[in-house]
Amino acid sequence: MSVPDYMQCAEDHQTVVVVVQPMGIVPEDQFFRIYKRIASVSQVSIRDSQRVLFIRFRHHYPPENNEWGDFQTHRKVVGLISVTSCTTAKEWLQTSDRFHGQKEVFGSTLYDSRLLVFGLQGEVAEQQRTDVAFYPSYDDCPDVEKRVEDFVESIFIVLESKRLDRATDKSGDKIQMLCVPFEKKDFVGLDTDSRHYKKRCQGRMRKHVGDLCLQAGMLQDALVHYHMAVELLRSVNDFLWLGAALEGLCSASVIFHYPGGTAGKSGARKPSVSSAADAGKRHRPGQCIVLSESGEKYYKSAGVIELEACIKAVRVLAIQKRAMEASEFLQNAVYINLGQLSEEEKIQRYSVLSELYELIGFQRKSAFFKRVAAMQCVAPTIPEPGWKACYKLLLETLPGYSLSLDPKDFSKGTHRGWAAVQLRLLHELVYASRRMGNPGLSVRHLSFLLQTMLDFLSDQEKKEVTQSLENYTSKCPGGMEVISLPDGLKLPPVPFTKLPIVRSVSLLNLPVSLRPHKVKGLLGQGLSSASPFIYSPITMHSRGDERSKKIDFQWVQGDVCEVQLMVYNPMPFELRVENMGLLTSGVDFESLPAALSLPAESGLYPVTLVGVPRTAGNITINGYHTSVFGVSSDCLLEGLVGVKSSGCMVEVVPSLPRLQLCTSLPRSAHLSSEDLSTSVSLQLFNGETQQLTITLENIGTETLNTLELTSKTLSTKEKLFGEFLTWDLQDALSHLPLKSGQSVSIPVNISAKLDFSGQESLLNDLNDDGISVTGLPVSSPLRQVLKPRTENKPVEGGGVEGPGDTLEAVLTFKYSGGAGQVEGYYRELSLGVRVDVEPSVFFTRVSTLPATSTRQCHLLLDVFNSTEHELTLSAKNNQDLVLHASECQRMAIQVDKLDFDSMPVTDHDALRQATVRQQEEKRQQVQGGLINSTLDIHWTIISFTERHGEASVEGVLNQLILEHLQLAPLQWDVVVNGKPCDCDVIADCRVGDAVPLEVKLTNRSKSAVGPFSLTIVPFQDYQNGVQNYDLQDAVTFIGSNTFYIGTVNPTENSVCVGALLFLYTGDFYLNIKFQDDSTARDLPPAWFCLPSVHIKAQEPVEL
Amino acid sequence: MAVCIAVIAKENYPLYIRSVPTQGELKFHYTVHTSLDVVEEKISGVGKALADQRELYLGLLYPTEDYKVYGYMTNSKVKFVIVVDSSNTSLRDNEIRSMFRKLHNSFTDVMCNPFYNPGDPIQSKAFDSIVSTMMVQAF
């Protein structure tokens, strides 16, 4: 006996075997339909008794197993049912013969047989025969079951008669020696009369009767017979049969205790003795030990029997939950050598072992044997390897190795498991699925392997795995779809989240020039609707959650938006990632995929993924997709471990126009502090003005509707005079709306006017030449005034420009249009302007000199040319002055004194807010500006004619000089002989005539002045430095030479009149002097600047 | 004397596994892996019947043709598995026990290392050398 029945269980001892076979040509499906109907009659209650006969139907039974029928009767084939097709009567005879032939095969053991004939009609079919049943067709056979039952009953009758025959045959004279096939030759020549032999025969027969009793449903009798057999056989050391007797005994007790069955097919067997279960519990351990003994000790010579006994024992122990003992049986079963097994048998053997291990809860062992079985399916010795079966078995081993094929189970932290073993299994799955001819499946498994086991692969293995993955994907690219296997298993997609590994995801703001800004007014409305408070901690908290994921900048529809990923490549070779793009939701998003190549074992590597939102709304970045080694994967951010993200939702505002800016000047490096789109830089001499043309082109798709321009001068330590940047936007605005592709130009004037006051060192150097600085009369207070100026200077012009002073300003264009404008968004484009200011000219010293007229004065400027070029300097009403490089010259300009008080006061509010000091500065600035515009000093560099500029004296003038330049608030008018005298006006008069002299004081100041007393002193100037005051006999006063002017209220005037009489001809001067008067001291001396009167006395006209 | 020594975490994944380099490493992985079935069965049995028993040594887990597999479980349910050659009959049960005790002591030292994260694979050199002495002695 060489074919073990791996499905054996203890109950099988109770059954009889009936073979159902097709005869001739019977369609397979029809045969199995009939077989199923026959097999449904697996137990038959016998009429007039409590007993039940159990039948095992087999459609295939090896005849050599039948030979062991004497040893264990449940191995004996007792019935044969043949199924055949027969259409004509002619065939019938032939069929009948073949049926007899078939009976011969099991002839020695058969109790009865039946033939089912299908398709035959006519007279042959009419005949009534017990052993043959005729049916017109396979579909029309209603009483098959009935027939089978009858057949089983007839078997039972034979069985029962045999049992009774054997059981009562106790004489023992001539008991037949029962033996197993291989024993037969051992008994040749044995003394049949010996006592030993007889006892042996008796024991074996007793055991045989036990078997029959068991089969016939006499359980109690069977137990008795088995016990007796055990006694008999033990005494004669007939171990094989002793084992069989013990096995029978155990089987009987198992049947008794577990009427539900031990094979797991509880439905197949109806419990007949329900109360027995409780009673049996006490005996269980003992019986099982017996069973184990029977297996281990006595079946050394019959491997198949031993194996089957082991299997039976395991099944029983599994029910009893005695896994340790069961495992010992199985361990034993593994070592039972059955000689040469066919591959198919090996597979069956391993699968059954696996099944049994599973039964006792040994998942890992079960998985191990299942895997061995799987490998056996494709052993090299098999001509047609069963890859499908192998694959199927391998899949079943997965739970045993605690491996699931869902990558999500591996996403939490580092993988913990039997990596080496799991790796092997995955490799086998890959190989099996490939050989199955399902490359998609193998790609899926291989990507799973790579994704989940990456940490456990050596560098060499990584290379090999990826290489083979690339080979597979060249035939069948991997995707993200779920693969469903025929048996219902679903293989979820495997996204390559580790190739490359993403460490952080951050959404990038648009470049500064493209960022949308919300119009302030609309923003305010939005806030006020949310809360009436400007700040409230409560509302902040409630908004915290929804805001946590939203980013506080916006993207613009139609513009390229960027997301930066920090990735690294864990592979020991260069990783090529293709078609890497973003996965988004919420907004139509056109992802522009990128391909990248990461160097081996790279560090963190920034990757920027770009895309264009096509509609407005809130966009959420869900993840990214890649294509690596031909496997495309969608990696969702929420599934990634250790990814830093600052949020992945951002608002997309409706589209806005886009401006591109070009300038007439070359671009330069960005300015230090500000975030600018572009900037220009240029070099100007101090005071120079240059025009910059800015061209704006609408390169977006939307029409530009509004444009604003503002400028901001960055804080500089330099004092800047005048406007740095000036422009005229009118022309540009008239071109609006600006369609896509159109452009507009805006001229901007850049003028650099810094302080022109000279450096201290220069000043000192220049003093050496001894030029009189003041030019004022010695008595003038200005002499004292000028001295402090040198002390003031370092404070005032502290940052006097050395070479390379810079001015920076930002021009900001605000523009809007399209759908974004409706939503209240605009964009800003800023242009940085940087000017390196080179010094041009300096005013090293400034002073005033009174002019002949009290209404005018001379402004003396020491001008220093600090450039390396020759330049000319021109002022209003003055001739050009040529200055060589580093030359200093004095320039005198006659200036009309200015009436600052009549100037419009610009800004009352501003003045009120400012401090007194600021007011003062402001006023000084305004006055300086006025003087500067009056002077209008220009320089031109001769070598380059286009370089010219103005020189502002604003910063140079100090308070004292300003006072000198100011028209005094007390206006003195001297009228001689009815002729106003000022400056160089010479009043004519006749000798001998009384010359009326009128001095008029007009008070323009804000307070009352006076009283004053004036003394008029005449003198003669000989033009040689000698002045003759001794004129008593040349000039006489008519009346007093002293005038008295009372208090003059503001805006009023006072006139005092006197007269002079010249006695001789000549040129006389009148010096109008103030008497020392304390009140006059408080007022500035410049206020008392009376014109000197020049009178020419002539001979009286002789008439 | 031992051909393979393994430390298995409470959750039944290997913390440490080392075998004689001459033979197939994978084979020992399979051997130790399947032995866990027996360990589990044994401790579930202990839990029921002998709850108060302080015996950590689990004894022979199962013999195979070539090897004998012994088990040991600490109170924190970390398992040690030692595989010895079946041909080595000189080994007594007591010697196996002392090997386990040595292993346990060394393992305790590993756990005392403040830089060791329980649940991570053991990479301690001291532990490695103890294991080496146990594996080398026979040769």
From TrEMBL, chain A:
Residues 850-965 form the Trs120/TRAPPC9 third Ig-like domain. GO terms for cellular component: trans-Golgi network. Residues 324-471 form the Trs120/TRAPPC9 TPR region domain. Residues 988-1097 form the Trs120/TRAPPC9 fourth Ig-like domain. InterPro entries: Ig_TRAPPC9_Trs120_1st (IPR058565), Ig_TRAPPC9_Trs120_3rd (IPR058567), Ig_TRAPPC9_Trs120_4th (IPR058568), TPR_TRAPPC9_Trs120 (IPR058564), Trs120_TRAPPC9 (IPR013935), Trs120_TRAPPC9_N (IPR058563). Keywords: Golgi apparatus. Residues 502-630 form the Trs120/TRAPPC9 first Ig-like domain. Belongs to the NIBP family. This is Trafficking protein particle complex 9.
Automatic annotation (TrEMBL), chain B:
GO terms for biological process: endoplasmic reticulum to Golgi vesicle-mediated transport. The keyword Transport applies. One of its GO terms (cellular component) is perinuclear region of cytoplasm. It is found in: Cytoplasm, Perinuclear region. It comes from the Eukaryota. Belongs to the TRAPP small subunits family. Sedlin subfamily. Keywords: ER-Golgi transport, Transport. The keyword Phosphoprotein does not apply. InterPro entries: Longin-like_dom_sf, Sedlin, TRAPPC2L. This is Trafficking protein particle complex subunit 2-like protein. It comes from Cyprinus carpio (Common carp).
